[in-house]
Amino acid sequence: MNHPTPQAALARRPLPPAVVQALQARFGERFSTSAGVREHHGRDESPFPPALPDAVVFAHSTDEVAAVARLCHDHDVPLIPYGVGSSLEGHLLAVAGGISLDLSQMNRVVALQAEDLTVTVQPGVTRKQLNQEIKDSGLFFPIDPGADASLGGMCATRASGTNAVRYGTMRENVLALTVVTADGRVIKTGTHARKSSAGYDLTRLFIGSEGTLGILTEITVRLYPQPEAISAAVCAFPSMRSAVQAVIETIQLGVPVARVEFVDPLAIRAINRHDKLALPELPHLFFEFHGSEAGVREQAETVQQIAADHGGQGFEWATRPEDRSRLWNARHHAYFAMLQLKPGCRAVTTDVCVPISRLADCVGETERDLRASSLPCPIVGHVGDGNFHVVILVDPALPREMEEAEALNRRIVERALAMGGTCTGEHGVGLHKMDFLVREHGEDALDLMRAIKDALDPKHILNPGKIFRASR
Amino acid sequence: MNHPTPQAALARRPLPPAVVQALQARFGERFSTSAGVREHHGRDESPFPPALPDAVVFAHSTDEVAAVARLCHDHDVPLIPYGVGSSLEGHLLAVAGGISLDLSQMNRVVALQAEDLTVTVQPGVTRKQLNQEIKDSGLFFPIDPGADASLGGMCATRASGTNAVRYGTMRENVLALTVVTADGRVIKTGTHARKSSAGYDLTRLFIGSEGTLGILTEITVRLYPQPEAISAAVCAFPSMRSAVQAVIETIQLGVPVARVEFVDPLAIRAINRHDKLALPELPHLFFEFHGSEAGVREQAETVQQIAADHGGQGFEWATRPEDRSRLWNARHHAYFAMLQLKPGCRAVTTDVCVPISRLADCVGETERDLRASSLPCPIVGHVGDGNFHVVILVDPALPREMEEAEALNRRIVERALAMGGTCTGEHGVGLHKMDFLVREHGEDALDLMRAIKDALDPKHILNPGKIFRASR
Prior knowledge:
Two copies of one chain form a homodimer. By secondary structure, the first copy, chain A, is α+β, with helices and mostly antiparallel strands. Helices cover 38% and strands 19% of the residues of chain A. Chain A has four domains: 6-105, 2-Layer Sandwich (Uridine Diphospho-n-acetylenolpyruvylglucosamine Reductase, domain 2), CATH 3.30.43; 109-225, 2-Layer Sandwich (Uridine Diphospho-n-acetylenolpyruvylglucosamine Reductase, domain 3); 229-336, Alpha-Beta Plaits, CATH 3.30.70.2190; 342-418, Alpha-Beta Plaits (2-Layer Sandwich). The first copy, chain A, has helices at 6-9, 17-27, 35-41, 62-75, 127-133, 151-157, 164-167, 170-173, 202-206, 240-252, 265-275, 293-309, 321-332, 334-339, 359-371, 399-418, 434-441, 443-456; strands spanning 31-32, 55-58, 79-82, 99-102, 109-113, 118-121, 139-140, 174-180, 186-190, 215-222, 224-225, 229-236, 259-263, 284-291, 313-318, 346-349, 379-382, 387-394. The two termini of chain A are 19 Å apart.
């Protein structure tokens, strides 16, 4: 592991009785110190052992969040915003104890501004819930991390997913936020206008801050018209390299693909088993095209030609919704399908992102590492963005497997950084990538981040121990 | 005016002799205290009277910039980064004296990464120069403010222009920066990967910070494939409202227009005179479509139908490059064409941006204000973004005209803020919109901006007196 055991990292002290009394009085049954509730809030999807908060509060409003923040601020109590618990790098672990502030019941779509192609939601709204609630508007929200994450959590980790190549990430798609500051003030960042040059970009500062700078209580995001036509395609390639080269050409030609995903042979085997498909166990690309009827046909034909130029075989279109769904559901289930390759396992998931010109080299050298590993390591990738995940299947009870997984991850990250890339394309830093962040940005840039943290949360009560250490 | 006379705003003190000696020794003829050079660097395109720096330094490298920053930091000397001087809100005025750091000679394209669709440039590279230098690559950089601004300046003001509806603004298109901090350290933000979740978004923090947080010395931006086909169209409408409604429908349908610009009858008159065109003096929309041959035809046909539904007349396509250029050159010259409506005038340019659903109301109510004004006030707008400019033509020597212009601007901004918009869509705050910024965000949000300023530039040497006052 490239970090100290999380639980040992920071000193803990018991909750002050005044805090317990004040929270009990205000929140009643929505304040809990039960072991089960704390256990549930002291973990995420990472393989880390849990680190429990001292108590959990379920908030229903911005005012309640502000009251909790003021109380924690006055008493120096750590405060960790919690959505649905789907983060992957230990973001939610209460390494210094304190309060886990569960926002999952703040799950109302506040206002749909259909003419403006925007919607304002509370942070506990999940991406699937949002799309369900707005589907009659003719609009949709494209950002789709693997899990059915909350929008608050997706802001916190600067999430993306399979549609980012066309629609961008949370960075590009959040217009405005309501934020509760560390000392319990309520501010609004941004406006409902599509663009602005009005002062520092506070919105973007909170996006990706992993709950360490403020607590988001309302979020306004961009929506997009549901495409008139959608078609999907799948194509097998003789090698990973030829598949990646086809993607580079597609993007250089300006074909506005909505999705293009790489799936390696081992991941194909997992998908075949899990979804009862019979794809050849070869490197594959999955495509989706959005546009007019004529537009998606033209895109698919262009991509088919490019694929053929690179040895792509069996390019198969799916325009019927049920065929498309079958294909893309298989892709979306890939994580769970892969977990079934090794019964009882958990996953250490790498998340590097490199300039697309280096993607074939990066994946190719990574494949060589993986062949030497004793662990099953399927690869899936958002290749249009240069982002790929090696899903390293481990038994977390076996230190040898955890060490091997961490060693692989370290090699992959070091390679990506050497190629001008980043240690995390979409999962965030959490507890797990703090050392890599230093390698990526350097201590001087980290000092700027620390200075911002000190300025906005001088007592370091917000999600302490995450992203970077408090000093060099 | 809604702010104190800039020159009176802050105390000035002479340059310390040690600073003069050190700069003379290092920079020789690239250090100047001549009246002409200082005069040139103490103004921008705003109608403010100039406020001269005490000296100007022409930098050639990141190391030189860092050396100047360290010197200014050690001696508490104001330091103002300067590109080509095309800002519009007094950004460059040396209201507290100090050094104007001219970066225009740092104008090298450092590296084109064609496969990655990115390019790294020095801050003095202008947008036209960049597109000229990369044109054989098949790629282009879409962001086009009216002036041939430097990329450093475009980062500083979070610039956009006519292509933002399709390609976004500087906010969406900068991947990485080299930044010299207030105390002369050199940091890198971001990477060459298309997306990242690695820590606080320092890149976005510097974009739009108007030279108050750091000095940009290298900039990596995204490029786009030159479209296979481009077509343009122009269409007259019976009213501004019908034109705007056509734009809303176009965007809601998901037609990926590259540009859609509103031009009001008075601006059409100016353009007709300046560019020898004969467009009817009616509200117009100018369109540009990028895509495949079939794609641009389909887009134009869809938009033609939408325009017809809203009373659009004389929808005229231009697919030949010379016809397109004639049309869009006219639009790009509009600012100068409008200045010629009133010989010897200067312009006070408003820059509000509202949610597109409110655009027709906002422009409509603004038109009523303008009819009551004694000043010529043509309107042009990036309507796909909800951003429009009233170009108020004034004689800056006549206080009555300046006051009337400021009163108009104030009414327009207040209206936009009430509609959920922003006081500045793309020009920035500078000296001119500091009070509006408070109205837009509130003092609590401004306190966060002040805290960030204090953290990154504790001595307040970087472009002092801009964006917000140092305290409430």
